[in-house]
Amino acid sequence: MSDNIKLPSLGQAFFVLGGFLALAFACQAFKIEIHLALFSGWFLALLIGKLVGHSYKSMEEAITDGIHNGMNAVIILLAVGALVGTWISGGVVPSLIYYGLKLIHPSIFLLATLLICSITSLSTGTSWGTAGTAGIAMMGIGAGLGVPAPITAGAVLSGAYFGDKLSPLSDSCIITASMTELDVIDHVKGMLPVSLISYIITAIAFTITGFTVVGNNTVDLSKVNAVMDAINSMYHVSLLSLIPMVVVLALLVMRMPSIPVITFGAVLGIIWGIVFQGLSPVEAITTAWAQIPKHSGLVFIDNILSRGGMSSMLWSVGIILFGLGFGGLLEKIGILKVIAQKVEKGIKSGGSLSVMTIIVAFLGNLFGSAMYVSLILTPKIMVGKYDELGYDRRVLSRNSEFGGTLTSSMVPWSDNGIFMAGILGVGTLQYLPYMWLTFACIAVTIFCGYTGLFMWKKNEEQVLAQKVSS
């Protein structure tokens, strides 16, 4: 049976991918849920899969395997929803916003957001955990200072993904190192030069923006005071309210597993809601599922403090499940492999190799709807060309990580795009122009590719070892 299976043609690949994109854009234009586009994409892929020789049973298994491989992300998503809900009702997030408004100088707010989220993600290895804790607090502080939400979200995401891709605790870092057959520390070292250059560029950009957009002259202090008064009227603000965040971050730094730690953080939020905010046990527990709506009279702060709970993540869970199934199908029938085979014929230099790796990784997010799909597929598809041109695996791992991890939240229907838009309250296409770390890393990576800077070549021992293993 396997002898009758062939790769799709380029036209068939474009039929599936182009058809899916057309459906996705139509759904957005007519305000139809994107879930239906992803679900319909399954049947476009199934049709081509049958035409090239795959059995329906094998493709159905590919769908379930794709979903199974991403279930960890779904569980974390639900756990973070519970954490956010209980931390808001327990006064953790409101206290962070209150003290942030009191202490952070407006003109350096964006730089502070970048640094705080970077430190948090480096320490914990999770961009989702960073966005769901420090990120939400910085969004609230930014709203109080009058900073446009998309710019604040861009600073949060730049910091969150800086740590996510460089922390040895990060799942994306570990997966990429594993797929390129590298030690995690070697993978991190390979990313450091480009990452640091890009981070400095990003920090300068946010600093300049902070002084020009949210400097002293543009901050309405009466609005800041109104936010602080509103928080004070709804919550008991206390430094003790920050203990759950300290505990959770400490446990993550100690490399404790994410799901139990985040769930434990949600339990602490419930306890804090009962002890410090005067909620009944039933009310406090209920906020793990659905947040209690807030009515302070300030719409923008009510929107932030009315978020959270597992139920708020169910829309996102649906998209992720459909997306993971679609990604599993695309891998099974070889759609992305066909496109990569066609374009890699034109790869003759480190520059074109870097560009194509980033494009393939982005396509993994665009059509696989999940960062994990991108990080698994990209090294598989591109490794042969790196070996052929004699580049060290550190170059492959770096380019795969930058193209996969850093672009993951740019796709509205990907797991990261859905999560970040939902948790930060800003649409994907709204915050996308301000993801300056992503743009800086990609630009510096391409520059290095064409100039040969940090494009390490394999030594003779590595070449021999790879020939023996192959």
Overall number of strands: 0
How large is the count of helical segments?
24
Q: SS-based structural class?
A: mainly alpha
Mean pLDDT, rounded to whole units?
87
Main location: membrane
Family: Belongs to the NhaC Na(+)/H(+) (TC 2.A.35) antiporter family.
Membrane topology: Multi-pass membrane protein
InterPro entries: Na/H_antiport_NhaC (IPR004770), Na/H_Antiport_NhaC-like_C (IPR018461), NhaC_Na-H+_Antiporter (IPR052180)
Q: What would you note in describing this structure?
A:
The structure is a single chain. This protein is mostly helical. The protein has a domain at 72-313. It has 24 helices and no strands. The model has no long low-confidence stretch (mean pLDDT 87).
Summary of the model, kept short:
The protein has 470 residues and is mainly alpha-helical. It is built from 24 helices and no strands.
What is the element layout, followed by pairings?
Blueprint: H1 10-29, H2 35-51, H3 56-69, H4 71-89, H5 92-103, H6 109-124, H7 127-145, H8 149-166, H9 171-179, H10 184-213, H11 221-234, H12 243-253, H13 258-275, H14 281-286, H15 299-305, H16 314-333, H17 335-343, H18 350-368, H19 371-389, H20 393-404, H21 415-424, H22 428-431, H23 436-451, H24 460-469
Family: Belongs to the NhaC Na(+)/H(+) (TC 2.A.35) antiporter family.
Keywords: Antiport, Cell membrane, Membrane, Transmembrane, Transmembrane helix, Transport
Main location: membrane
